[in-house]
Amino acid sequence: MTRVFSGIKPTGHLTLGNYLGAMRRWAEVDQHRSDALFCIVDLHALTVDHDPARVRRLSRQATTLLLASGLEPELCTVFLQSHVDEHTRLSYLLECVATDGEMRRMIQYKEKAARERLRGGSVRLSLLTYPVLMAADILAYGADEVPVGDDQVQHVELTRDLAVRFNQRYGHTFTVPRATRPEVAARVMNLQDPTSKMGKSDDSGPGIVYLLDEPDVVRKKVMRAVTDSGRDVEYDREGRPGVANLLDILAACTGGNPESLAAVYDSYGALKKDTAEAVVEVLRPVQTRHRELCAEPAYVEEVLRIGAEKARASARPTVDSAYRAIGLLPPV
Ligand code: AQP
Q1: Ligand 1 center to residue 39 CA distance, Å?
Q2: Are residues 119 and 163 in the same domain?
Q3: How many domains does the chain have?
Q4: What CATH number does the domain containing 273 carry?
Q5: Does the CB atom of residue 155 touch ligand 1 within 6 A?
Q6: Cβ(73)–Cβ(138) under 8 Å?
Q7: Is residue 159 within 8 Å of 168, Cβ to Cβ?
Q8: Ligand 1 center to residue 170 CA distance, Å?
Q9: d(C-alpha 75, C-alpha 31), whole Å
Q10: Does the ipTM exceed 0.90?
Q11: Is there a single domain that holds both residue 145 and residue 245?
Q12: pLDDT means over runs of 10, the chain (332 residues)
């Protein structure tokens, strides 16, 4: 059976981008057709300036939202990265295979390091090495597929390179995984700046639809989305990124196709109105289930406990064989 692994960082409140680009597909498709593991990658949240209490809060919230979005612990494994030591054990070995130049070429590193410097902060070494930990997250489980949005594809490519290099140098140890992208909404853009990704750790609140935004807040944000001075509704990602982003969101929420939807509208106002309502409808069941799960914290804790046990048992043999292959003696 195909093994699928993917993760989500508790660095902010989860967004419509996380949902349409990743979470929805995990729940609707991946958990049903594969042996799937979904991880709240809390160690990655420590790579930038963070408040410990907030990370704890966001980790619980991300778990609850993953379950609310439809992940079923009977069908897949849901767990916290920091509960399974194999991730950091393997990460060190992969650091011995990766190069400094590879890390510095990562687009997310460049963008996030620049953001940290702009805020007057220093750049943590873990921000530079984070793609290696991500590679360990994936390789520890022998994942065949990694369903991600566009922004993570480069990191999955790096994971493939590290797996191939390790296998060539030390003998076959890792499955070489591949990234899979959603057909629509692989990159949901910020509503106020449609040339940047809708990212949960951005500060620009009005441009980001959060999964727990009230319907009226969603409507307001979508109605105020930046478009352009034109009038015709056309799907042109380069020339009219704001309108294209709305069409992508509408298509992802209604199951349509952005190009054909463009032909249906003769004004930006009507497009925005329908997009807002489509988003409200997509988020409604997630929000309802999230409220129910908030009343069951013991259930959520139990999901994480069982998930960590299953994940540990699954990762340990691969990580142990990587330790042996690279030249380390087993403990006596
Ligand atoms: N805007 C997006 N459009 C489509 N997919 C997206 N994803 C994230 N944003 C979009 C996908 O959601 C999954 C989980 O994301 P993550 O938490 O690992 O990464 P992130 O959202 O990129 O989070 P950061 O780095 O903490 O903060 P921001 O969001 O500010 O960059 C991934 O599959 C991702 O592709």
Answers
A1: 13
A2: yes
A3: 2
A4: 1.10.240.10
A5: no
A6: no
A7: no
A8: 33
A9: 6
A10: yes
A11: no
A12: 96 95 95 97 95 97 98 98 98 98 96 89 95 98 94 96 98 97 87 93 84 97 91 89 96 93 93 98 98 96 98 98 97 88
